[in-house]
Amino acid sequence: MTFLYFMLLLGVLIFVHELGHFLAARSVGMRVEKFYMGFNLFGIGIKKKWGETEYGIGLFPLGGYVKVSGILDESMDPSSTGADYEYQSKNALQQIWFASAGVIMNFLLAIIIFTGIVYHIGVGVQDERAIVGEVIPNYPAQSVGITSGDLILSVNGEEISSWAEMTELIHPIIDQTVILEIERNGIVITDTLVTTSSQSYIDGELKLVGMVGIAPKVEIVPATLFQAVGEGFSLTSYWLVIIFDSLKMIATGEASFKEIGGPIMIAKLTGESVRNGFLSFLNFMAIISINLAFINILPIPAMDGGHIVVSVLEGVSRRKLPTKVKMGVQQVGVLILLLLFVFVMFNDISRLFQ
User: Fold this and answer.
1) Element of type H or E holding 159
2) Residue 128 per-residue DSSP state
3) Sign of the C-alpha dihedral, residues 325, 328, 330, 332?
4) Which of 14, 321, 327, 337 has its CB 3.0 to 4.6 Å from that of 64, i.e. a possible disulfide?
5) Rounded to an integer, what distance in angstroms lies between the CA atom of residue 234 and that of residue 162?
6) Euclidean distance between CA atoms 20 and 14, whole angstroms
7) What is the DSSP letter of 321?
8) pLDDT per residue over 315-352, tens digit each?
9) Contacts of 74 (CB under 8 A, 6+ apart)
10) Alpha-carbon distance 261 to 288, whole Å?
């Protein structure tokens, strides 16, 4: 079952991405030579030609591609006749539109999925008071008997009036004793516990904070279509920032390269999301769609972002880069991608043995 959902996940994300390139190419008059789901390594796969385009399903499922006439891409085909329908004959804006369309479609997919989920289940409204909505299993709060509905009145003798004030006081207390004054069913009691340490994503950084293991009270209220669309954009932006900050933390050494995952990790997380329900699977699909968009827009040769950089340089200089230069850049890009693939697969396999 996990494998089927994993293939569904890949199929939807790849199809949407490549459909973006296909529609953009057609909109500016580029000839689409190939539209493939998966890579047809060694020519093995299913293919059928309709009109000017060869449509196919390749043997290797982890990707797909749209090949337009006259583009120098990972196929390393430098041939160009100068025909009006070729990529090189289009202006910089048209080339950028074609290269960015797949990324745009992945972002749109994420927005649509998030919008649908919010419209279906509603919007969560957090109670600003320091009322316990949920007790997290295997955390200190559970061990001392704190329950849902408890109202936190003070932390180490300092009175609080909101959830934000409470967390602001508890977070700096790492692996130390904390005294909580609690109101339960009209009776005020005192609980003493030792906080546990946890890495939390706060203000764009991973920070070590003290935790007691409680979550706020959240009420789910119906969402209008307008609210759902707004939440769709908001959640997409939120996850985009998370992905960017995660990459930044890896680059600066705050996070380990070992945390980067590949197909095996995605398959594992797909299975976990499916076990939590179909909406959880859709939510995971939206997050991976944003990841795919972000990776493709990076200015790496052989990626969509790399093509955009070349088009911008040629547009600004009003001169075409020499074919030899483009060929060299593509070869470097393909090498980078191969090394990255080997690296993430090594990480994935290492996790299986841990």
Assistant:
1) strand 158-159
2) S
3) negative
4) 14
5) 25
6) 10
7) P
8) 888 888 787 877 777 778 778 878 887 877 777 787 77
9) 65, 302, 330, 333, 334
10) 12
pLDDT per position as a tens digit, 181-225: 999 998 999 999 999 988 777 776 678 899 999 999 999 999 999
* DSSP sequence for 244-273: HHHHHHHHHTSS-GGG---HHHHHHHHHHH
| pTM, full prediction | 0.86
Report d(CA 310, CA 85) in Å as an integer.
19
Q: How far apart are CA 326 and CA 104, in angstroms?
A: 25
Q: Which tokens hold the place of 17?
A: 């991405």
pLDDT at 192: 92
Neighbour-count burial of 236, counting CB atoms closer than 10 A to its CB (0-12 exposed, 13-18 middle, 19+ buried): buried
- Residues 114-131 have pLDDT tens digits of 999 999 999 999 999 999
Q: Is the pLDDT of residue 238 over 90?
A: yes
Contacts of 62 (CB under 8 A, 6+ apart): 10, 38, 39, 263
Helix (H, G, I), strand (E, B) or coil at 76: coil
Express each pLDDT in 275-295 by its tens digit. 999 999 999 999 999 999 999
Beta strand 60-68 with 205-211: parallel, antiparallel or unpaired? Answer: unpaired
CA distance 241 to 234: 11
Task: State how far the Cα of 126 lies from the Cα of 55, in Å rounded to an integer.
Answer: 49
Q: What is the pLDDT of residue 76?
A: 57
Domains of the chain: 2-121+258-353 (no CATH), 125-220 (2.30.42.10)
Output DSSP code: residue 131: B
Helix axes 278-297, 225-252, angle to 10 degrees: 50
**252 Cβ contact partners less than 8 Å away, ≥ 6 residues apart:** none
Burial bucket for residue 175 (CB in 10 Å: 0-12, 13-18, 19+): exposed
Predicted confidence (pLDDT) at residue 74 exceeds the cutoff of 70: no
Q: Are 289 and 240 in contact (CB under 8 A)?
A: no
By annotation, the residues acting in catalysis are 18
Each residue's pLDDT tens digit, 298-312: 888 878 998 899 899
How far apart are the C-alpha atoms of 171 and 77, rounded to whole Å? 57
3-state secondary structure of 175: coil
Q: Which helix (H) or strand (E) holds 148?
A: none
